[in-house]
Write a structure and sequence with these properties.
Helix content: 25-40%
Strand order of the largest sheet: 2-3-1-4-5-6
Number of helices: 9
Strand content: 15-25%
Number of strands: 9
Distance between the termini: 37 Å
Structural class: alpha/beta
Shape: globular
């Protein structure tokens, strides 16, 4: 725990929004390094991810939540529960909206839930670099009429536009009090969890629409070798043999490429050499396996 110094501020911001609004990209940009994986595929973030940003004397604890949507399956229900769980006890709720898409059916469950919450609510219109200005202002007006936000910001998490002003405003909004985390800590994710997420991100990046959303990566073994390098064994779970073939690729080339890119990024993030071993397993009903939920950081939801 960091020692208490004069005038320190610290608080929690819950970052909520529909799938693909750019919440993870925004959190990573504010923290200054990667703490959450990103992908153009909706619902990439599955569990509550915490990033710690520092601005002047303020420590801003950003809770990047899974996108909130109408849940159909057990995995969906667990993700939505994690999202609202991440908003509990927050000093303010930041609703991130895709500025180009505006208000659509995916936003409705969030708007309904936020109407009954007492926390301060800020609206962050993201992706303003690709949004049409007139439409953006109409979206903003309609959303503000519905929820009455305390603050409204226009940003692009991808280009950095508007982020210094947003970060400064977040810092000023934090209550006075000692920092919750050491100055060099950027996330609450363990290295083991981060390793699984980095591999899952590569699956999404390299396979795009070929691979269904229902895949999981389980880090079975994570150990430090005597030479300081790290050895990681991971299992990629898919639902059908056809999906296993997609992940493997011709002669196993696709899996090699996924492993190579994930290893490269993990080495950079961890600052040590990484030995990564991947294998693909068909487990038809993995979404109903309590153990998998525990391993990927979700609560079991009936």
């Amino acid at each position: 725990m960091t020692s208490i110094t004069e005038n320190q501020r610290c608080g929690v911001i819950a970052v909520v929004g529909a799938p693909n609004a750019g919440k993870s990209t925004l959190v990573n940009a504010l923290v200054g390094q990667k703490v959450a994986i990103t992908s153009p595929k909706a619902q990439t973030t599955r569990t509550r991810v915490m990033g710690v940003a520092i601005e002047g004397n303020a420590q801003i604890v950003l809770v990047d939540t899974p996108g909130i949507f109408a849940p159909k399956r057990r995995l969906d229900r667990a993700m939505v529960q994690a999202a609202w769980g991440g908003a509990q006890g927050a000093d303010l709720i930041a609703m991130v909206v895709d500025g180009k898409a505006g208000r659509g059916p995916k936003l409705e469950p969030i708007i309904e839930s936020l109407k009954h919450r007492s926390e301060r609510k800020w609206l962050i219109l993201n992706k303003v670099d690709i949004a049409i200005k007139e439409k953006l202002l109409v979206h903003t007006e309609k959303l503000n009429e519905t929820l009455g936000f305390d603050e409204i910001f226009f940003v692009s998490a991808a280009t950095g536009d508007g982020l210094p002003e947003l970060k400064a405003a977040f810092a000023a909004a934090m209550p006075e009090g000692p920092w919750h985390f050491p100055e060099d800590q950027v996330s609450d994710a363990t290295d083991r969890m981060l390793a699984a997420e980095i591999t899952r991100e590569q699956l999404y990046h390299q396979l795009h629409a070929e691979l269904p959303y229902a895949t999981a990566v389980d880090t079975e073994q994570y150990k430090e070798r005597q030479d300081g390098s790290v050895e990681i064994h991971q299992q990629i779970l898919v639902g059908r043999p056809t999906q296993r073939a997609i992940v493997l690729g011709k002669g196993g080339q696709r899996l090699k490429e996924i492993g190579s890119k994930a290893r490269e990024e993990l080495s950079a993030l961890l600052g040590v050499k990484v030995h990564l071993y991947l294998h693909v397993k068909v487990k038809e009903d993995w979404e109903n396996d309590r153990g998998i939920y525990r391993d990927i950081g979700l609560d079991w939801v009936e």
